[in-house]
Amino acid sequence: MEDIAGFLGSYPPFDAVDGDELARIAAVTETEVSPRGKAIFPQGAGPVEHVWVVRSGSVEVLLDGRVLDLLGPGELFGHASMISGLPTGFEARAAEDTVCYRIPADVIRPLLVHPDVLRFVARSIVARAVPAAPADQVQVRVATLIRTPPLLCRRDEPIREAARRMTDQGASAVLVLLADSFGIVTDRDLRRRVIAAGLSPDEPVSAIMTEPAYTVTADRLVGDVLLDMLERNVHHIPVLSPAGQVLGVVDDGDLVAADGRKPLLLRRAIALADSPAELAAAAAGLDPAIIALHDARATAEQLTAVRSVVLDALTRRLVELAVRDAGPPPVPFTWFALGSLARREAVPSSDVDSALAWGAADEGDGSLVAGYVTRVTQAVDEGLRACGIAPDAHGASAANPIFARSLASWHRAARSLAEDPTQDKALILVSVLADSRPVWCSGGAHVGGLWEGRPYPDQAGLLRMLARFALSFRPPTGFLRDFVVEHSGERRGQLDLKHGGLIPIVDLARWAGMAAGLASASTLERLRTAETAGTMESAEAQTLAEAFGFISSLRLDHQVEQLRSGEPPDDFIAPSTLNPLARSYLREAFRAVASVQANLSAELSLGVRWG
User: Fold this and answer.
1) What 3 state SS string does 176-202 have?
2) How far apart are CA 593 and CA 589, in angstroms?
3) Using CB atoms within 10 A as the burial measure, which of 44, 181, 436, 600 is most buried?
4) Angle subtended by helix axes 276-283 and 300-326, to nearest 10
């Protein structure tokens, strides 16, 4: 039994188990000997009631008779079926004379579903020396961080009196009671709107308050509230009970430790920057901020949203500076984010896709408008490059005249693509238009997306083509030793997490979301909408959402380690750097995506969804 405990304790996830628990697991573990060629369990069996760990020898993983992977000592198998309660998705067969340890499900199940183990699975790149973060503060409810009752005042209370009470109580904000909402005055308002502006402290607080104050409910997660602060460029948020009663005010210092506040400080530095050079200096703090949040255990969804919000602020400020230098626009215009930035899914390796749309084509002189737009877009393009942020390498940039045109021209293009989706590159352009979000608008400019939700609901042909487009990228089928086995059967030495794992899910979600009438949105929002609207089966939507979250976490872990090491971030992982449990979970994610694609392909061939 000591030999079993010693062996298991050398491999994840057992290496995180204390000695007593490990001894308990070892006491009920059985040794199973399998000669070469014997099936340990067949495909479609179960659900299995054990999990196996290879002790010596090796085990082949086969799908429909085709070898997908070869598992060696210390690697786990059978756990996906055990946890899900579904039949096994593959056959496990001894590749040589093999010894496995067989562990009962009721003993190992609590370990595999423990949050720390799931976090270990997602953060599965080779072990790294990262300072241990405190508790998962970004994942707790914001109400738990309220330290004192709220400080309240009437709108006619003198600023002097409100400031005195803030000082006495050590509060950084006071809430102003209004008829059906709250105003808010912060210590920063006192500095900027009273002291710096020379306003008399005998004026009422209503003269400097912000109303209505943005509020959150007590059950919101700290990480989400931090993102709210970042996006709205505020540092204090009142917290309300379910009944609407104010419980207190949290500030950025309450939410995270000093390192975690970096995105908020960065957001402020961007807003105050008065030149592209100052913006470049501020932008240098973006990667360190992402590393700090990652170490604070923010989720992948929160990290990509934070990066996207900061990139929005950076782009917005560059547009404002370009307009300041170029003079008033001859026609109103809107700057759009495209692609992953529009979906708020930007990662360190992401470039910045953009577009520009101005008022109706007959507004103003055509050459004047074109000249003005060229000056602004080139200034923004140069500013982004100076900040170390690359515009899209394939030309999806507002600096490209193809992506800077009148709104009427954009809508004509959208209608043409909807009416004839067989045009050259039509589906690529549809995906660009659908993944668009306004970032900056001049006075009177259009503020919707380039693709107006579902403007042509009768175009079943467009949705059918989008569905086919969602089958363009196929995930790998698995691993064979240290090689990735692609859908075509080709073997590669590195795994492309973006094209092999995420893009198939993004494309499926775009199709299903547009079929439900939702165009520009995040991948997870599209999947939730599609599930609600019935354009995707609930099980499929949830499976894709889980796979998207897992692969996104893996991608961010990989890129954060590259940033930490001073390497340029990319999407390529060598299978040998993944631990056995992570390889298994990743393999299951690929199979889940492939299953949804297979179902969609079958329905396309039968015309089930389009009649």
Assistant:
1) EECCCCEEEEEHHHHHHHHHCCCCCCC
2) 6
3) 436
4) 170
Q: Distance (Å, rounded) from C-alpha 457 to C-alpha 134?
A: 50
Where would I find the beta strands (DSSP E) of 349-488? 353-358, 404-406, 436-441, 478-480, 483-485
Distances (CA, A) of 3 to 9, 22, 26, 55, 536: 10, 11, 9, 11, 49
pLDDT value at 363 more than 80: no
> Which pTM was predicted?
0.71
Whose CA is closest to 387, among 273, 306, 301, 302?
A: 273
Helix axes 426-434, 460-469, angle to 10 degrees: 100
Q: Rounded distance, CA 592 to CA 580, Å?
A: 19
The contacts of residue 561 (CB under 8 Å, 6+ apart) are: 125, 128
- Separation between Cα atoms, residue 83 and residue 114, nearest integer Å: 12
Judge contact between 206 and 155, C-beta under 8 A. Answer: yes
Q: Specify the 3-state DSSP secondary structure of 126.
A: coil
Measure the CA–CA gap between 319 and 440, rounded to whole angstroms.
Answer: 8
- What are the CB-based long-range contacts (under 8 Å, 24+) for 162-171? 162/205, 163/190, 163/194, 163/201, 166/190, 171/249
**pLDDT per position as a tens digit, 142-186:** 888 887 889 999 999 999 898 888 877 878 899 999 988 899 999
DSSP 3-state of 476: coil
Q: Which of 219, 222, 215, 260 is nearest to 239 (CA)?
A: 215
User: CA–CA separation, 128 vs 87, rounded Å?
Assistant: 35
CA distance 461 to 43: 38
Task: State the Cα–Cα distance between residues 48 and 78, nearest whole angstrom.
Answer: 7
Which parts of 38-84 are beta strand (E)?
39-41, 50-56, 59-63, 66-71, 76-77
When pLDDT is cut at 50, 70 and 90, the band that residue 140 belongs to is: confident
E strand intervals along 216-369: 216-217, 236-240, 246-251, 333-338, 353-358
* Residue 593, both tokens: 């995506």
Query: Which tokens is 376 given?
Result: 């602004």
For 406, the token pair is: 């009148």
In which element (H, E) is residue 598 found?
helix 580-606
Length of the chain counted residue by residue? 611
Name the residue type at position 380.
V
Question: Which 3 state secondary structure label does DSSP give 358?
Answer: strand
d(CA 367, CA 213): 44
Report which residue type is found at 68. Answer: L
Kind of pairing, strands 353-358 and 333-338?
antiparallel
CA distance 609 to 343: 26
Under a CB-based contact definition with an 8 Å cutoff, are residues 384 and 352 in contact? Answer: yes
> Which residue from 524, 498, 500 is spatially nearest to 512, judged by alpha carbons?
524
CB atoms within 10 A of CB 552: 24
Q: Which of 307, 319, 268, 234 is nearest to 556 (CA)?
A: 307
Query: Could you report the per-residue pLDDT of 228-273, keeping only the tens digit for each?
Result: 887 787 889 999 988 888 999 988 777 655 445 567 777 878 888 8
Question: What is the rounded distance in angstroms from the CA atom of residue 457 to the CA atom of residue 418?
Answer: 10
Enter the tokens of residue 70.
């070869």
CA distances from 235 to 24, 65, 250, 254, 591 (A): 49, 58, 8, 10, 43
Nearest to 508 by CA among 598, 574, 417: 598
DSSP state of 522: -
